[in-house]
Protein 1
Amino acid sequence: MSYYIAPRFLDKLAVHITKNFLDLPGVRVPLILGIHGRKGEGKSFQCELVFEKMGVEVTHISGGELESPDAGDPARLIRLRYRETAELIKVRGKMCVLMINDLDAGAGRFDEGTQYTVNTQLVNATLMNIADNPTDVQLPGSYDSTPLRRVPIIVTGNDFSTLYAPLIRDGRMEKFYWEPDRDDKVGIVGGIFEQDGLSQREIEQLVDTFPNQSIDFFSALRSRIYDEQIRNFIHQIGFERVSLRIVNSTEGPPEFKKPDFRLSHLLESGKLMVGEQQRVESSQLVDEYNRLNRGKGYQAAPPVTGTPTTQPSSNGVNKGATNHNSQKPETLSPHLTLETQEQIRQILAQGHTINIEHVDERRFRTGSWQSCLNTHIDAHSDAISALESCLTEYAGEYLRLVAIDPKAKRRVMETIIQRPNGRN
């Protein structure tokens, strides 16, 4: 099977690796190439294809190895792997690189709830030190004055804004945002289904039917086509005999005939997968759990006397509201669900203040939220009015409600209250 390598990806990676092995007078070459982009777009796999094409050997480090119960172990691991790769260049006489997958998962800080450990600090500091002194990388407790061969470092991740800012500055790290365009997707998906008899036109139709899906979606789709045959195989031999037949059998591995890879079948299976994705996104159980668990002692305030009896309509907008409280009623909105208004009331009853943030669909993937307000709100009527204005002004964007503890100066709750296209 021949896989497709995106020309932009090949060009960027080849230039960075080659440039690090050249002696360019008066030129400071960044040691690290950071490849970032949304999940599932094949960043690591494209790297592997480029390495294979160029004949480059790779030493791998996973983001999961960048934390340890023993302080200093991950930093020492980076130095050790770097020195081993430099020795490989010397012994093999060929290009070698050090690759760290999912660097932001191991060394990034996503929000105030992410613990910033000693190891996180040491990993960032170690990579900065290596980028500044690539031929003088020492192990703790020893010193070797012999200069090392320079080793290009490739790191991948989804959101590099979570990393320590001095590490990703120009001069240390060159950034490459990978987002395959339609031509790239058609080429990559064509490679995935190359042996299945799909025409170029069918590949294009498949990609155009699911334009917002990542590359991993199409790979998972091909895998899913085999499910029906495997299911029939399991039912044929019996659930209790599957293990003996596959793991400890003298009959050899089972053989399956080629599944149905017609375009109509692929589209049908793909739509089922999209439906599963949407169900995960729409459930949003984590928001419910976070509302209950974020912040110490965060509990719902007692209900207000004369709670409105009006029910929200199916599109999340109140059909009307009445209040039978003899005292001055709280401001009720005809445009917000009762659930949202109750959330606001509970937040303010706890002594917290409110902020409202928005982000468009593109920046939502990187978590680049922006505040809609110039100040935090501590009055119910002001909060309702501000929220209605934000819903109108940012109708095509995500909106989230943020509760802030003014004494501790930290967030105690975040909940999305609007999604693009009016999905509230």
Protein 2
Amino acid sequence: MAFDEMRFADGGIRPPYAEVARWLQGVTSAQLERRRAEAELFYRRGGVTFAVYGDAQGEERIIPYDIIPRILSGVEWARLKTGLEQRIRTLNHYLADIYGPREILKAGIVPEDLVWQNPAYRPEMAGLAVPHGIHIHIAGIDIVRVDGDDFYVLEDNARTPSGVSYMLGGREISIRLMPELYAAHRVAPIENYPNELLATLQSTAPRNANKDPIAVLLTPGQYNSAYYEHSFLADKMGIELVEGSDLFVRDSVVFMRTTEGPKRVDIIYRRLDDAFIDPLVFDPGSMLGVPGLFAAYAAGNVTLANAVGTGAVDDKVVYSYVPDMVRFYLGEEPILKNVPTWRCRQKDDLAYVLDHLSELVVKEVHGSGGYGMLVGPHATGADIEEFRQRLLAAPANYIAQPTLSLSTCPAFVDQGIAPRHVDLRPFVLTGADGIRIVPGGLTRVALRQGSLVVNSSQGGGTKDTWVIEDPEMPEARA
């Protein structure tokens, strides 16, 4: 049975949710439905939409928003925050290492082919000193909870993690539509995230940058599924939102075209993938990037956030080695656990997975968005047989994990108030002056009954996440 974050096993209310439980007793379904409609209208008026790649109609959708907040106590958040800081330090060490001395490969801790054969590994970065030694400036670490005390890392997102606009939008909705519930708690603020992001970016400016470093946000353009977030963040940070055609490189320095003439750019928060950033180095057919940008980067004249090649840690097999990386680089035991993972590239693991397909979740090593995966307990016999053939044909392309019973939180759905499975994506910022994490993050919720898939492209929605000052804690119950 899934761990219920609101209720004890005997039905009693856990202390962090005491005010939420009282509030829910005082509102009707009609009132909740009205507030849900108002939340959707807020998103629609603000243009808060996303597109599903592969959708033949190309329809822009409103991400479903559940108005009942998810609550984390201060003690829970403190433990989680410490673990996130440890993990992001480790991942930055790993990237600096595989593009530098490769000590972890020499030690035999990570197999060499996981680096050399990883399509996200960029050999152009080998030996290149990135500004301030930071590769991952913005990370989204997906966290799940399967029991009362332990948080597990489900996935590391180190390329261009998205979802911040939904985190901030959800908080605004909470304050507007549930002021009485919000006022009943001491909720840690997240509204300063854009300022924290800007400070992080500016702290990583090249050493020869402008006295007041100039940052821009580079977007693929309005047809990108996350374009709303790009424009939202640029506006909140007070920086220019640019496309590749707005920038040019001269003498290995990046400039932005403005009505007042060229203006040097020091930091580029880029929201497009490695392959598209510079047609002279990567995809020659790219019309989205800036010719010469990589040369300016290699010369140390501009900071790219995140660095080129950070996707090498997003690999789901590499993920399985992160606990070993923590011990190797930091000499510490991991604070946050990994989900147990079978590497189908290994003979014994593959044999186990093939014998237990109906019990496991099987994922593509480089997959994302909830696509290309098998959830064994919910799969048909035909689905299982199809994945069996995929595994036999290309076992190295897959990993498998147990079917976790993700924790649940109350959600307002068509059937009324019911528990639904959730995960959490905190956003971790790493600058030259340290690590910043706003308290909470984006809670994603599987709104379909019985579903464990929280991705918006697969019918999931979002919740506001409140980190609150700890209430008086009575003796814990099972």
Protein 3
Amino acid sequence: MAAAAVQSSWSDLPADLISEVLLRLPSLGDLVRLRAVCRPWLAAGARPQHQIPPPSPWFAHHAGTLFDNHGAPVRICSTPILRHGVSDYLAVDNLAFLVRNHGGEGGGAGRGICSLVNPISQSAEETPLPDLAEAVLRAMKDSNSFTPDNITMPYAKVIMSSPLDSSDPFVAALILEGYYVAISAFKRHDVIGFGSVPWDEIYMNIPGKGSKMYLVDIAFSNGWLYTLTVNEGLYVFGSDSVFHQCIVDDIDQRQIYTKPYYSDDDYLVLRYLVDCNGRLFLMRRWMGFSWNAELGGDVARTCRFEVFEADLTTIPCQWRKVDGLGGQAIFVDHKCAKFVRASKCVGGVQEDCIYFMNRFYANPCREYSGLSIDPLADSGVYNMRNGEITPLLPEAATAKLRLQHQYLSWFFPAHV
């Protein structure tokens, strides 16, 4: 008589075999999916993580979903990013910055509380940031235009000085349409502040200007917080909670450049500030657009980039143009600009290339005109060596992401 077949479960798979499988997975998304199967696989998946190369960046969807670089949704922790009480969120490197309205509906954005969470961890435990919210409130009180009741989302961009588990990380937020920066520490509750760059420091003899300068980006470098103005001035946030000038503003730099009178098209220039191992870089993003473009259409298309490094050793300090990224790549979107070592990423990241996506638009006109925004309408890979622009993703992955009809931002997953 034949022996009865032995029934076994996938959860009984030996740990050494699971380790061999993990070493052959093409992406961190597969690691996350494997660990979500059962507890034994979760435990085994935590052991060999140091042997798995970092993945290519993912896509964070405004509705709270993460997609890998194949356009497939990634299963995250049991608690979704847009959990109960969360009114909005931003992708911050490998974390999600959550914003809650304090006291429920109608509490006002400025009265909200905020926190950070790792969206692909199993615990989904939030790290509260009460001091940052307090700094934002203080900025609102200083502002003549914004109050907690007339702005829905004061946070334009959030950055970290170092990883969340480091000894003394800081968090900074570009807020209130770019006129203020709020900064606080996680572990020292006496460090709360906000700052802005006054017009007087730039336009000494031009009457009729407002009291604050428009700031386009912020970045931490060597532990210091820097901000970039629309006129490409560079400022550092000092211990006295005041911004000090490093590179003088160029009043000839503009956001819109007009072509000859016989052309309907003009250039919109966006600027980003990004750190690379203690070196600061300015990126100019040139976008061609037409004033006759319909709302909801392809408003602007990126045509080229320029990159400059801050030389802070000369007097006066200045921006110096560079022609390459030293084997690195830059990922940029409406709320992010980050260097990535191309050779260390899984997924074929190209050296000396800039990976870019739409600068904004969370489907602004869908409720009004029935149109919907293509989240990848203005996206691609800009090669600094030859100036060519190639598609950001294969068509199959692009088709999946276009179905979302909402803006996407970069998410840089870390091993969990």
